[in-house]
Amino acid sequence: MSYNQTQPTFSAQGLATLQIYWVPIALLFAPVPYLILSHWNKSKTAGGSSAPDYSKFDTANIRVTKILVHPIKSCRGISVPEARYALEGLENDRRWCIVRADNNVVVTARDVPKMVLIIPRIIPDSPCQKDGRLEISFPEDSVCEAFSVPLHPTEETFLSWQSIDISLWSKDDIEGYVCQTNIGRSPSEILSQYVGFPVLLAMKGPRPRICPPTLRFPKLDAPSYFQDGYPLLVVSEESVAAMQEHIRGMVGIQGVDEKWSNDTLQVERFRPNIVFKGAGVPFIEDVLTEFTVDSHRESVGDASPIIRLVSKCTRCMLPNVHPETGVRDKAVPMKALMKHRRGLDPEQPTLACMGCNGVPTADGVVKVGDWIHVRKMGFV
Hints:
It is a single chain. This protein is an alpha+beta fold. It is built from 7 helices and 21 strands. The strands form 5 sheets. Strands 2-1-16-15-19-18-17-21 form an 8-stranded mixed β-sheet. The longest helix is centred in the middle third of the chain and has 12 residues, at 237-248.
């Protein structure tokens, strides 16, 4: 993996000078000057509210509070106490997807909100062999039977499955295999009944899928599965809490329903992989460019691989879908995101951002309760 970029390192004092450091560079790239200034402005945000003081981040007490694996893209995530990760992301995260049978285009909960109610479950390998399975079940009122597919199909199994080129974000170069079972109806038949039109369940093939480059990493060569763009997505609990307060401040306007005076904004709406807490103020992920994660309170040399945050995560309407009901809200959280979190990504200034995309540099393990050790800070 090559990044070929020198990362800025900031001390606690230097963090306060981030705006000065980045603005001269930003002047070379319109409309970046406006974006950088609006992001780092200490007095006001685009929405007119007070911006967090980034110099007050507590980088010594950040811990992992939740780990979410989403085996099938856009289906329900699984909260796990620990997960192995590789260059492609968390183990089994988005290794499967559902595609339209007529053109192999990936189907997501943006199109079919009730996909979030499809429940995947990882049955791990036994001690002596790789016989793990992915079990899939459905809401009781769907009248769709559960089924399972192998976690680690053999080469012989792969050869018996249909190979297809899958299209995601207008690129049809992702190698996939249509999953089959030995008993009952095929997975694709059952899923087609559930979503209401012909679809296929596909597993990612071995041919690498390389992530798109970013402004900071123009030569990024990180692999991924069926993630929208990058192997990992991280977000802090403080950031989600801040968005919840913004939403409560918008009740009664722009279509924000009265129920949001009391309803909780679940972190699951944003479909992250690693959730952490402890910085004391929201949006530390915006300035956290390199970190490691392990069980030691103090950083221990090279005990864990570096994870780099390579870009902010621009948002579509999927977070408006309630992860437990499959109902799409007409306003939340997108209206609040557009008011308070737009113009932060220089490459897509019209889109709102929440969370940041990460790339591991080697294989590792992350556990709930692990410590986040900040290595470098800058502009994500």
